[in-house]
Amino acid sequence: MSNAGSQHGRVRARRCAVQALYQWIVTNASPIEIVGEFVSDRELIKVDLDYFTELMREVPARFDDLLVIIEPAIDRSWTQIGPVERSILLIGTYELRCCTDIPWRVVLNEGVELCKMFGPEDAHKYINGVLDKIARSCRALEIASNSTVNS
Description:
With 151 residues, the protein is an all-alpha fold. The chain has 8 helices and no strands.
């Protein structure tokens, strides 16, 4: 049921996590309760449930550390960013910082796609710019080795 090895399962897990983190930000409900609601109330077909649960456990648990990484990359206060964009930035920053098995370009692309799906028009450009700045600080060696290979 977890589809742990599937890239599409992870994409679907991120989609669910954006919605669940949005709910967490707006209602301040327990992340574990939100996961329980998602699993019982929705048909989570082909969702990597292990990854969805990891995101919903780790992102709120590491919120303060993630915010320390995000704040230098944004041009306004955290509270001036909409809850959808905040959710996407939290997921992307968590993946850049803690999921080094996911290439940085994949993290940026997924953030942009999530924002196109759930965010306001043109917000994906902002998400791309912020995640790019964060990637350059969290994944500097990976980015440098990619540019050397591509030269």
